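Hi R.,

Here's the chain you asked about this morning:
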Amino acid sequence: MPHVNSFPVVLVAQPDRQPIHLVIRGDLVLGRDCEGLLLADPQVSRRHLEVGLHEGRVLCTDLGSTNGTFLDGARITAPVVLGAGAVVTIGDTSIHLVELPAVPQTARPQATSISDELRRTSIDRVVDMVTADEWRPRVESGTVTILFSDIEGSTERVSRIGDAAWFALLEMHNEVFRSELAKAGGREIKAQGDGFMLTFASVRRALRFATVVQERLARHARENPDDGVRVRMGLHTGEVITDQSGDMFGRHVNKAARIANLAVGGQILVSATVREIASGDREYEFGPPSEVELKGLDGPHVIHDVLWRE
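And here is the predicted structure, written out as tokens:
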């Protein structure tokens, strides 16, 4: 079995993205909104799959996912061993064993427990486990404001109106986002399913984009009562790590995603950092501070609601 310093290594691959190599030291959850490895894949459940060790073997367990977990094309209903040459698939994400050169013990810190490992971000694992020749991350110059969004109740909406009507609605939603993004000078990092990950060079541009998009979507919903969507948004500002494909990682990216997960449709939530930077701009109003816990991030965090007007 492939090992790095006696631990098996798996590769997590997604279309058009840099693959991630993980050393499996304990149990790790994979999903769109979990305490382990976050996957930007609309077909993946919030807590989809657990990958762990059992007697030196890699064990994969489906966590009651909606779309299922497949081993070499067959859906699994019980924990399975990920053997050499086998591929586990969840949505468009594939997982299989790989061999990597051994990394010197002094080159990377060791997690002291499974809980410590789960608190580490995916970029921590990539930096620890992938050699410089295989992946050369670069640090984004300066800071960026990160915005995550998705449509509230999208799964139920698809079931209710059908695929054709949903795709027409999604096309309208995407046109609003992309046209306003071009005006704001932002960057589209990811667009999967009904969600976006965007970055902006300034807090002001990000807030202007978010409020204008919410205003346009609210106006569309008023004019088309049966054809509207409610979008939730979360924003945070900080430095990020960018890989060669342009994808972004790091704790500030995770924080923006966690803040977005707390929002409801039609709401814009921002971190205290965004609120502080925008404090001198009278164009935007904010609600009172709320102290929240963000999954996978230590300590309490302060967030604010942006008071945009329909």
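One quick note: DSSP finds seven helices and 22 strands in the chain.

Cheers,
M.
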